[in-house]
């Protein structure tokens, strides 16, 4: 599948109805999601046939994209019920197979509206759960291959971006993909190096933040965002990292 | 919620141990056929908690014929593998609860989505 096709398929994914500012709900745009996943698949083979977890999945943009690219199973996790309801609808609506069909026929735009139950099989590959990531009290063991996320940037709740990242590292066997403000790049690189983790900045993207909330004065703000990949070593994340998480969250055994 | 998803969840209660099995109280389930992929299934078997999976499968009446332990899984036995595939991937609990067996706290499953959030006073 071509990047453009993936992006077009994701255009139909509905976003937040009433975004919640305390959760920093900014929708991942189809363009951003497509770039993100396309890289993960084509450069690193981290999506197709893999078990994927989408932390803070919101309305499911990245989950659906990963499924379109052939993930065997995607678990979308979010703290917000309302967002997950929309995500469930999105999963039901997207007609995955028609996209693949048009691709093989060499056509590119029109998805067949009569597309029967083509989406059914894909639908069953995406499952969701309401879990507070910051509590991380689900089985935080490396049970997924790849963790993908567009986490809160930690502007409303300080440190939330790092908590998401650490959670992802505990859940993944291969790699964690995430987006962070470019302004935090040096800090993240230093932290990763400190724990002997390989972090690569895959791309610097522009994240279009529309004026969704009352406190936004400008109509539209573009912030610079890094798409990063952190590789999980074959032996798992270093125990010292897990200790760090443990000390800030007493429950983490 | 399929059993693969269930297997990755744990009770968020402070008192509960992380390895605790969450009991399923199923009010409604649907079965949806899923493509059988032996490679993927083998990798999943390797990483799931087998006892928890079997207990969950029993409670949903799809536990018959499942090997009692992971060691007894024979990946060349397709009939057995398909049973595991069915229980793990194809049975979807759309309504019901997950019960923390240590505290009795119930977590609702609605529209197939388990809700593991705690109330303020439980944090």
TrEMBL record, chain A:
Residues 103-123 are annotated as: Disordered. Signal peptide: none annotated. InterPro entries: DNA_methylase_N6_adenine_CS (IPR002052), rRNA_MeTrfase/Polyamine_Synth (IPR051720), SAM-dependent_MTases_sf (IPR029063). GO terms for molecular function: nucleic acid binding; rRNA (adenine-N6-)-methyltransferase activity. It comes from the Eukaryota. SUPFAM superfamilies: S-adenosyl-L-methionine-dependent methyltransferases (SSF53335). This is Methyltransferase small domain-containing protein. The lineage of its organism: Eukaryota, Cryptophyceae, Pyrenomonadales, Geminigeraceae, Guillardia.
Automatic annotation (TrEMBL), chain B:
InterPro entries: Trm112, Trm112-like. Pfam families: Trm112p. SUPFAM superfamilies: Trm112p-like. One of its GO terms (biological process) is rRNA (guanine-N7)-methylation. It comes from the Eukaryota. GO terms for molecular function: protein heterodimerization activity. Gene3D superfamilies: 2.20.25.10. Belongs to the TRM112 family. This is Multifunctional methyltransferase subunit TRM112-like protein. It comes from Guillardia theta (strain CCMP2712).
């Amino acid at each position: 599948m071509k990047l453009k096709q993936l992006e077009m398929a994701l255009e139909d994914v509905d976003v937040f109805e009433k975004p919640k500012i305390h959760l920093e709900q900014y929708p991942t745009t189809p363009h951003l999601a497509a770039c993100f996943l396309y890289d993960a698949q084509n450069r690193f083979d981290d999506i197709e046939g893999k078990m994927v977890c989408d932390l803070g999945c919101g309305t499911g943009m990245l989950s659906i994209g990963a499924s379109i690219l052939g993930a065997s199973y995607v678990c979308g996790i979010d703290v917000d019920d309302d967002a997950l309801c929309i995500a469930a609808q999105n999963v039901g609506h997207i007609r995955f197979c028609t996209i693949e069909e048009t691709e093989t026929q060499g056509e590119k735009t029109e998805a067949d509206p009569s597309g029967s139950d083509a989406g059914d099989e894909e639908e069953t590959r995406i499952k969701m759960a309401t879990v507070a990531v910051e509590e991380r009290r689900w089985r935080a063991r490396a049970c997924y291959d790849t963790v993908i996320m567009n986490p809160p940037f930690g502007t409303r709740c300080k440190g939330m971006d790092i908590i998401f990242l650490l959670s992802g590292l505990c859940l993944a066997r291969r790699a964690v993909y995430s987006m962070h403000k470019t302004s935090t790049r040096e800090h993240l690189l230093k932290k990763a190096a400190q724990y002997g983790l390989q972090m690569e900045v895959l791309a610097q993207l522009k994240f279009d933040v529309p004026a969704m909330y009352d406190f936004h004065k400008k109509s539209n703000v573009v912030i610079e965002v890094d798409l990063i990949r952190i590789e999980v070593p074959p032996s798992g994340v270093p125990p010292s990292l897990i200790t760090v998480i443990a000390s800030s969250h007493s429950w983490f055994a | 919620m399929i059993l693969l998803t269930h297997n990755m969840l744990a009770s968020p209660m402070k008192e509960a141990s992380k390895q605790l099995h969450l009991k399923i109280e199923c009010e409604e389930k649907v079965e949806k056929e899923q493509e059988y992929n032996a490679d993927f299934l083998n990798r999943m078997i390797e990483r799931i908690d087998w006892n928890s999976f079997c207990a969950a499968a029993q409670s949903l009446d799809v536990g018959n014929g499942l090997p009692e332990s992971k060691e007894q899984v024979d990946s060349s036995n397709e009939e057995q593998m398909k049973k595991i595939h069915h229980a793990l991937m194809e049975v979807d609990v759309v309504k019901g609860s997950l019960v923390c067996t240590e505290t009795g706290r119930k977590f609702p499953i609605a529209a197939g989505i388990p809700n593991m959030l705690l109330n303020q006073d439980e944090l």
